[in-house]
Amino acid sequence: MMEEVAGAFGSSASFALRLGQTVFSSASLLFMCFGVDFYSYTAFCYLVTVMGLVIPWSVTLLVVDAYSVFIKDLQIQQRIVMIIFLGDMVLSYLSLAAACSTASVADLLLEAGGSLCPARLCGRYQMSAAMAFLSWFLSSASCLFNFWLFSSL
Amino acid sequence: MMEEVAGAFGSSASFALRLGQTVFSSASLLFMCFGVDFYSYTAFCYLVTVMGLVIPWSVTLLVVDAYSVFIKDLQIQQRIVMIIFLGDMVLSYLSLAAACSTASVADLLLEAGGSLCPARLCGRYQMSAAMAFLSWFLSSASCLFNFWLFSSL
């Protein structure tokens, strides 16, 4: 029906991108959640909320891409590509915002030092922010590829 | 030579977008700079740096758009549109990152209260972050329109 855009919805590159997003966003959530009192800082609560949105979105599209790659090619419709593009765009902006907020608060706590941020906890905050950045990067790549596909339909 | 994309390079909507970017990024820089010791926080230094990149970029493209709208239509080349798209993309991500960092640090300082953040200063930090958000919004709109133009060339 149409030429395939590498990395856009339904291709195997897209499957890889979604897999990466799932892994990195889950890692970010886990680093932030376990053994950390994240609810005492707004920025960390925001990161947890955003990751709670990104993970189901990535997993859903991972499953759809897996179906399309391994079982049966899906018909690509313009409306669906637009929805996926918009979702990706919103979620990539949200995850960049969450990553930056977390990173800057972690940096401020690290400078303040002392009881606010023992080395063990601050390392976790930073890892969580790093994972959120990686997740953002893959998510914005997906967004661009889908936009390319959408504008070529 | 080709149909014009509203909001993309060389159109009058683009001129308006660039004007808004220039105004908001300058406002963000001014709120942060005057009478505030921004150099004591990494996030605020980062905002100042990013706005120092966004302002010349917006002003340059504002002038080019003004020339194209009021004086003489410019020939649109694919390579130039791609450069503008890439620049917009990078700068919009940077300004979103700066806005989020500033907002989260300002929020943390506001919670900490007391001598760290007198009401006058904190209000300025928040205004600066708000202006940076507006600048990001216009910048990402420009980026999308230019990408649309690029993919239709």
TrEMBL record, chains A, B:
Q: Which UniProt keywords apply?
A: Cell membrane, Membrane, Transmembrane, Transmembrane helix
For this protein, the record's Pfam families field holds: CASP_dom
Q: A Gene Ontology CC term for this entry?
A: plasma membrane
Q: Where are the transmembrane segments?
A: 41-68, 80-105, 125-150
Residue ranges occupied by any Casparian strip membrane protein domain in the UniProt entry: 10-138
The UniProt entry's coiled-coil ranges are none
Q: How does it sit in the membrane?
A: Multi-pass membrane protein
Q: Which InterPro entries match?
A: CASP_dom, CASPL-5
The protein's location, in the record's own words, is: Cell membrane
Q: What is its main location?
A: membrane
Q: What does the record note on quaternary structure? A: Homodimer and heterodimers.
What family name appears in the similarity comment? Belongs to the Casparian strip membrane proteins (CASP) family.
The protein, known as: CASP-like protein
